[in-house]
Amino acid sequence: MPVALAPSQALYIGMEVVIAVFSVLGNVMVVWAVKINKSLRDTTFCFIVSLALADIAVGALVIPLAITISIGLQTHFYSCLMVACTVLVLTQSSILALLAIAIDRYLRVKIPTSYKRVVTKQRAAVAVVVCWTVAFIVGLTPMLGWNNLWRLQQNGSLKDDLIITCQFENVISMDYMVYFNFFGWVLPPLLLMLLIYAEIFYMIHKQLNKKACTTSHADPNRYYDKELKLAKSLALVLFLFAVSWLPLHVINCITLFCPTCDKPLFLLYIAILLTHGNSAVNPIVYAFRIKKFRDAFLKIWKQYFCCKDGPAMLTQTSEKGRKEDDNPNGNRNPKLLPPTGPAEVEAPSPQSNALPPKPPMEHNNI
After folding, report:
1. Is there a contact between 186 and 94 (Cβ–Cβ < 8 Å)?
2. Helices in the chain by DSSP H: which ranges?
3. pTM
4. Which CATH class is domain 7-305?
5. Backbone angles phi, psi at 256, to 5 degrees
6. Domain extents for the chain?
């Protein structure tokens, strides 16, 4: 027999479906963009891909499960608990991916000349594995016993067959959600990332001011200008994550510390939609704020959806761009520079057949 849905519940389910579609399509585009554009395959974008995979799982797995839960499905206690833990694992993986991105950008600005020697792709891959491992440990902790099974058995609301109405608060302990999850693994990383980005912006502005006063070379300023632009984009991703997830955690705190307080159902729906909607907004931020992603998205759209032959995608950064990224202090390789005067490049003798050096390729800024 079909379940009759209230208007607010039907609206909630409809919005969840829209968010799921945009979340999956948008983040698949992110992974696709990194695949076709080798210049996006540095360590930062490895962490961005990890974040995108978590967001794809939210759209393809978590949201359908959330819709199932919202209609009051009768399930076994541990089946419902596994659904809730899946949400927790993906949430924690997103937080840790954002933290890894922040640390990566901090090292990029703090040690620019030795960054690529310290932060290798192998170490970035290990960091991604560590993030997901910690996310599974934190998210699956309720499966090990920190759940509401004992409480439900004590108050007599759980039968011997362990069949319950599958709702998040029925199976997940609010002690776990507030003291362990929020105070232990959500709030501290968010505060740490806030401090890291504040330090990144401080160091970049300090370097820009110092370079403007001490040198006429444009390369150091260009490097730090690029880092400032990317840091602003990633800080925006962090800000949207905090805005999306904090309301639900505040509701959890109210549930724990004020059990008799009234919590309107529509507020809970809004908080849940915000958390799921965060998975759909990141590709939009990348498209509008990061040029390489925008170019890759346009290429994918034109070539694969509109069946048009787009311009060839640059598959790697130019040699000049790599030199500037490795050495932002202006020590450029003279072999890559055009002659600027007789003091810099020796004029070829009449017997010489050497061609004048070619100007360097333009560096693709993010």
Report:
1. no
2. 7-36, 43-57, 63-70, 77-110, 115-118, 121-139, 149-154, 168-171, 174-175, 187-214, 219-257, 265-289, 291-300, 319-326
3. 0.81
4. mainly alpha
5. -75, -45
6. 7-305
